[in-house]
Amino acid sequence: MAPINIAKPLHISLPISTLDVLDEKLTQGDVISAELAHGNADLIRVLDICGVAGPFKAVTPWEHVDAKGIRRINAGGYSALPFGDRYPPLVEFLTEYLTRDSAQGLPQQAASPWRAALEANLVALLAHVAPSHADSRVFFSNSGAEAIETAIKFARMARPKASKIINFKGAYHGKTYAPLSLTPNAEYQDPFRPLMPGVVTLPYGDIAAFRKAVKRHGAKTIAAVFIEPIQGEAGVIIPPAGYLKELGEICERNGIVVVADEIQTGLGRCGEWFASIADGLEPDIVALAKPLGGGLVASGATIARKEIYAKMLSGMSCKRHSNTFGGNSLTMAIGLKSLELLVEGRLDERSKQMGEVGLAQLVEIAQRYPNLIETVRGQGLLMAIQFQSVVPFKVPFMSELVGEFSGILGLRTLHVHGVQANLSLSSKRVIRLTPALNMPDDVYKRLFQRIEAAAAKNPTGPAMLRNTPISVTAKLSKFAL
Description:
The protein is an alpha/beta fold.
C-alpha cells in the first residue's frame, strides 16, 4: 500500500482555548465582546444594557455570582434546571459514567442499554398515572421543538386523511418551522409565512368554542389537538377546572389524537408528574424535554401509544423519522439519573408544597403593592408575576412596546435585588419564576424576601422606570426604536 500523504498542518491560531475558559482567563468584557462580534449580538446587547447579561458562575446549584461578586438566587432556567446548576449528585454520576461506562456513544443503528433503560422508566412513570400507556413507546430527540416536530409527524401518520391540527391562542410549542406553525405569535410567525397549512387556532380554556370547532370543521378532518396543560410563555395561564378532561373526552369520542406538550410543565414542575393527566386529560402523545436534561445536556422525548408509534415507525419504514444525536448514551445516562433523582426525591410533592407556599407569598406581595403587580399566578414551581405598565397612560400605537419595556424593567428590577427570573415570550409584562424543585428552604425563603424588597423599592410600575438610570432607559429606547 502506498504511504498516505499527510497534509501540512493548518497554520492558524485559534483565538480562545479550552484552558482559557477553564482557567477563567476571559474577562467579562472579553466574553461580551466575543458574543457581540460572533453571536446573537442584539440579544446580548439588550441584556447588557439592562445589566443582566452576565456571564454568571454557579456558587451553589441555586445561586449565581456575577463578575462584580454579587450573588443572586436563580429562579430562571425556563424549567430546564430541575435541580439547579451542576447539582453535585448529578455531576458525581456524570463523572462515574465517563470513568466507568464503555457503551457505544452514538448507537444510531444498535441497541443501547442507556436508551433502553430511559425508555422503560419513562413509560413506567407515565403508566403509573395513566395505565393505558403501559405499552407506549418513546422516540428521543434533542430539544422540545424536536419533540413537537416528532409528535406532529406521529399525529399526521395516525390520521392520514385528516388535514387539520387544532392549537390555541397563547400557545408556545417551539420556533422550528412546524412547531412555529402551532405558536400563534405574529412577531415570530409573520417573517416565515407561509407556515404549515391546516392549523386552526382556538381560544384557550373555552370548551364551548372547542366543541363548536369540532362540529364546524368535522372531526374526520382534524388529525390532532396540541395543548399545553398550563400555558407557560403566555404567562402561566391555567385553564378552568374540568376543561382538559372534557376536551380529552370529545377527542376520544371522535378519534382525534391529543398531544400534551409537557415540555415546561412535566416531570414534577407543576406538582404532578404530568400536569395534563392530573387534570383529567389522558393524551395519546406526550412531549417532554427541559428537565430531562438535568440542566447539563439537551434532550427531548416523544411518548406515543403503541398503535400510533407503529403507524409511522414499523417494518421497513422504521427509519422514516430519525436524527443523529437523539438517544445518544451520554444524554440518556443523564436523563436516567435525572429521572431517578426526581422520583426518589418525590420532587413532584415537594414542588406542590413549595408552590403553595410561594404563591401565597406572591399574593400577599401583590396585595401590598397593587400599583406594581397587576396579578400573580402559579401551580407548583411554575409561577408568574404580571407587572403594571411602567407608563401610567396609554401611548398610541406603542402598547406592545410599552408592555415589553415593562417586562424587561421588571426582570431588571428583580435582578438588581438579587433574583434571576425569566421573560415570557407571549406575555410581555409577565416575569416567570421557575426555581429548582430541590431548592433549600432557606434559599427559597430569601427568594421571596428579595421580591418583597424589590416591590418596596419600586411600589408602582412607573417607579421601576424612575429607578432605572437615565442612561439605561435612553439606550433601551434607542435600541427599540
